[in-house]
Design a protein that fits this description.
The complex is a heterodimer of chains A (241) and B (589).
Chain A: E1 2-13, E2 20-31, E3 35-39, H1 46-53, E4 61-66, E5 69-70, H2 76-86, E6 87-90, H3 102-112, H4 117-130, H5 146-157, E7 164-168, H6 176-191, E8 195-199, H7 203-207, E9 211-216, E10 219-227, E11 233-237
Parallel strand pairs in A: 3-8, 3-9, 6-7, 7-8
Antiparallel strand pairs in A: 1-2, 1-4, 4-5, 9-10, 10-11
Helix pairs in contact in A: 3-4, 3-5, 4-5, 5-6
Chain B: H1 2-17, H2 19-57, E1 62-66, H3 71-78, E2 86-102, E3 105-114, E4 125-129, E5 137-140, H4 141-147, E6 154-157, E7 160-169, E8 192-198, H5 199-206, E9 211-220, H6 226-233, E10 241-244, H7 245-253, H8 259-284, H9 286-298, H10 303-337, H11 352-379, H12 382-387, H13 397-404, H14 408-419, H15 421-446, H16 458-492, H17 494-502, H18 507-540, H19 550-576, H20 580-588
Parallel strand pairs in B: 3-8, 5-7
Antiparallel strand pairs in B: 1-9, 1-10, 2-3, 2-6, 2-9, 4-7, 5-8, 6-7
The chains are: A alpha/beta (241), B alpha+beta (589).
Transmembrane segments (chain B): 21-42, 262-284, 305-332, 352-371, 398-418, 424-445, 466-488, 519-540, 552-572
Domain MacB-like periplasmic core (chain B): 25-234
GO cellular component, one term (chain B): plasma membrane
């Protein structure tokens, strides 16, 4: 069953002569439990694709489906509710709320979803333990290293047990050691059956995915299945040549 | 010289980039300075007008009033002419107590029986028409203005009609409606105006069974020695009442007794609103200012030069606003200092007290709003200032936990308030200042009407108009402040709001949260404003004040809160609908 699906998904920026097609009639199917990496040069439309999938931007044309629900025509309010329940975001710049502690940041999505404080706190403690930040729960983001901040952001993305986690350059601001930590967490999520879509420049991140899509000028130019369910190289689905 | 040029260039460039900020600062400070300057200089202005009227009309140094007419009164008054300190006199003349009707309205009047050719002492200045002639009356300008009398109208005095041949002013009596000065037999008099007729016409009126007293104007050897002159005449047998020119000048300012506190308190409240509004703007620019300071440090600027760059802009704008405010006060002052039109002349410039007070106000606005961000900018290390935005957010675990159990909009609102508690305090004070003005206006409206016979009470009317004007200015500034503070809050928190939306908060919840963040401090501010308004009105009022119904005050508080919610809704809604992806992408780079 596909968790994410797009049909002829298109996003244009600007108007007239300066109009740019950031995403150009993209068809995508992401089955449940798949880890998909999207790579491509800067400006090829990767992040825009991620924003469209997560309902942070509206497409110019085409369809987006999350599970059985078409999302491109939903109202802002309905999209927000969908994000609460079904989507977790991880950003390159972490985007933790500066004045909240690590635990309070992780609790936030659960509270927005209407869960009780006790429930939200229990879930946050569990997730912080999972990402190795239990001892940093009361620290402010400014007191964490870059890697720790990104791990906290991942924990926050998982707070409402989303259907899919969308990660935009999750290791873009991290050093090698921190990148390794994040990759370990992604590997654990993948093993647990979490659907992941990761936009990245980092070959090491892409190498951990089940599938790799290459983008250029808003289009998919390559779609490669890297590993099968057992972790073996499965095969290539070439779109070029 | 180079440094000064650099500072000027940087300041001008910054003003060009932030025209709206500059305009708001100038507007707010101008309103505050003009109001305060008016309030502080009114008494002086009124006295200056009296002195000019006195000079133009040969005003007497002392007016002697006998409690009745007849040979005894005349003899008693005439004996003053031979007093060694008296160098000239006018009279004795009859003062007839009557009433005057015109255009369907009427007023008490005193009729002075005057000479056809006035001498050097008490020579009323005719401002339109001509001086009295037999059968024709001249109406004092204050009374004429109140009744709408013009030259050529016919007025009825004690059932007898007289053509109005002229309108004039004098310094020998107090301004309308206190022209009588003292009633028959030395008792109090009703509010009344002044009319001049020939001595013969006044005598004819007196013969119609009206109360008549006698008066005489005196010129002293030493015009300032009026007290000594009065003391020399004090005896158990004297029946005369002596009004010195200083007494008349002071009496003239009584009409402004309610005006001065309205304007002075209003000026300080407006100044306070200016501080809160401009401080919110300055705080909103703190990141930019810190980066600017970092850049200047990096290229070798000294702390002094950086402070000069950051402070000069606000100081220069505030001083410009002071000049504008003083000019506005100067233009408006004659109308407010002379509400009855009984005096002539022009007001002089602001006195020392006014200059000092308005300078203090201007410095308070400029320094209180710009000093904290400037000090912060100077203290921030150069590299930090250049590389990271200066966010000075404090973790508030108690408030965060408390907000966690609230619905999403309240959670967002409370956490926004916790981000900038100082701004919430400013907003509370801003609301308090506004509601103080509104409460003052409501109390003013609730006071019993005390008309001058059938005519409106000029003093009450002027006080009401000024109270209304000050309140309108307070409300206007508060509106600008509320919108500016909401917008600043929205802009500063745009990333965390975008993150909140990315995590599932709806635009409506974020928008409501932004509004709630403004509404929360407005509640205690509005309540405090009611009590402050009552307190200030009580301090500056004489005697018992009539309180408006509690429902009025409650309605004022609720209306203020409703207006705050409505005013914040638009910028909050606009900010909450800003695309999330664009905000977050902009912060990623």
């Amino acid at each position: 069953m596909n968790v994410l699906q797009t049909r002829r998904l298109t996003k244009e920026h600007g108007a007239g002569a300066s109009r740019v097609r950031a995403v150009d009639e993209v068809d995508l199917d992401v089955p449940e439990g798949q880890t998909l990496a999207v790579m491509g040069p800067s400006g090829c439309g990767k992040s825009t694709l991620l924003h469209l999938l997560g309902g942070l931007e509206r497409p110019t044309a085409g369809e987006v489906w999350i599970g059985q629900r078409r999302t491109d025509s939903l109202s802002e309010r309905a999209l927000a509710r969908l994000r609460r329940r079904s989507i977790g975001f991880v950003f390159q710049a972490f985007h933790l709320v500066d004045e909240l502690s690590t635990a309070e940041n992780v609790e936030l999505p659960a509270l927005l979803a209407g869960r009780s404080l006790r429930e939200a706190r229990r879930r946050a403690d569990f997730l912080l333990d999972q990402v190795g930040l239990a001892d940093r729960a009361r620290h402010l983001p400014s007191e964490l290293s870059g890697g720790q901040r990104q791990r906290a952001a991942i924990a926050r993305a998982l707070a409402n047990e989303p259907q899919v986690v969308l990660a935009d350059e999750p290791t873009g601001n991290l050093d090698t050691a921190a990148t390794t930590d994040v990759l370990r967490i992604f590997a654990e999520l993948r093993a647990a059956g979490q659907t992941l879509v990761i936009v990245t420049h980092d070959e090491r991140v892409a190498a951990t995915a089940d599938r790799l899509i290459s983008m250029r000028d808003g289009m998919f130019v390559d779609d490669t299945r890297l590993l099968d369910g057992t972790g073996r190289l499965a095969g290539l689905i070439g779109l070029e040549g | 010289m180079g440094r000064v040029l650099l500072v000027v260039r940087l300041v001008l460039a910054d003003v060009r980039r932030h025209k709206a900020h500059a305009a708001m600062l100038v507007l707010a400070v101008t309103a505050a300075v003009a109001t305060l300057a008016l309030g502080l200089s009114l008494n002086g202005a009124c006295e200056a007008l009296y002195r000019q009227t006195r000079a133009a009309t040969g005003g007497p140094d002392v007016v002697a009033l006998a409690p009745d007419s007849g040979p005894d009164a005349t003899r008693e008054l005439e004996s003053l002419a031979t007093h060694p300190e008296v160098v000239g006199h006018n009279g004795p003349y009859a003062v007839v107590y009557s009433d005057l009707a015109v255009h369907g309205r009427s007023s008490g009047v005193v009729v002075h029986g005057a000479s056809l050719t006035p001498g050097p002492i008490n020579r009323p200045l005719v401002t339109s028409g001509e001086w009295i002639r037999p059968g024709g009356a001249v109406v004092e300008r204050g009374l004429a203005t109140a009744l709408g009398v013009k030259v050529g109208d016919r007025v009825t005095v004690s059932d007898r009609r007289y053509p109005v041949v002229g309108i004039a002013v004098t310094a020998a009596t107090s301004i309308y409606p206190w022209a009588a000065g003292i009633g028959p037999l030395g008792g109090p008099s009703d509010p009344s105006g002044l009319v001049w007729m020939t001595a013969k016409d006044a005598s004819a009126l007196a013969g119609r069974d009206l109360t008549v007293t006698t008066a005489m104007d005196l010129k002293l050897r030493d015009p300032s020695a009026t007290n000594a002159f009065r003391s020399s005449l004090r005896s158990p047998t004297t029946r005369l009442t002596l009004h010195s020119w200083q007494f008349i000048a002071t009496q003239d300012t009584v009409i402004l007794s309610g005006t001065e506190p309205i304007l002075v308190v209003g000026g300080w409240l407006l100044g306070f609103l200016a501080i809160t509004g401009v401080a919110a703007l300055a705080a909103g620019r703190i990141v930019e200012q810190t980066r600017r300071a970092g850049l200047l440090k990096a290229i070798g600027a000294t702390p002094g030069l950086i402070a000069a760059v950051l402070l000069t802009e606000f100081l220069a704008l505030a001083v410009l606003a002071q000049v504008l405010g003083l000019a506005v006060a100067r233009l408006v002052e004659p109308a407010i200092a002379n509400p009855t039109a009984s005096l002539i002349g022009c007001v002089v410039g602001p006195d020392g007290t006014t200059l000092v007070a308005t300078t203090l106000l201007v410095l308070a606005v400029a320094l209180l709003t710009m000093l904290p961000p400037t000090v912060r900018a100077l203290r921030t290390a150069t590299v930090s200032a250049l590389t990271s935005p200066a966010q000075y957010l404090r973790h508030r675990p108690l408030l965060t936990t408390l907000s966690a159990v609230l619905p999403t909009s309240l959670l967002v609102g409370l956490r926004l308030t916790a981000r900038r508690p100082g701004r919430a305090v400013l907003h509370a004070f801003s609301t308090a200042a506004t509601v103080t003005g509104i409460t003052g206006l409501l109390i003013g409206i609730a006071q019993p009407v005390r008309p001058y016979a059938a005519l409106p009470n000029i003093r009450d009317e002027q006080n009401y108009r000024l109270l209304l004007a000050v309140t309108v200015m307070l409300v206007a500034l508060a509106i600008v402040n509320t919108i500016a503070i909401t917008w600043m809050t929205a802009m500063e928190s745009r990333v965390s709001m975008a993150v909140t939306r990315a995590l599932g908060a709806t635009p409506g919840q974020v928008s409501a949260g932004l509004s709630f963040a403004q509404l929360l401090p407005a509640v205690p501010g509005a309540v405090a404003g009611v009590y402050l308004g009552i307190f200030l009105f009580g301090i500056f009022s004489v005697g018992q004040i009539a309180m408006p119904p509690a429902s009025w005050l409650l309605a004022a508080v609720l209306a203020t809160l409703f207006a705050t919610a409505a005013l914040t809704a638009l910028p909050a809604r606009f900010a909450a609908r800003h695309p999330v992806a664009r905000t977050l992408s902009a912060e990623t780079v």
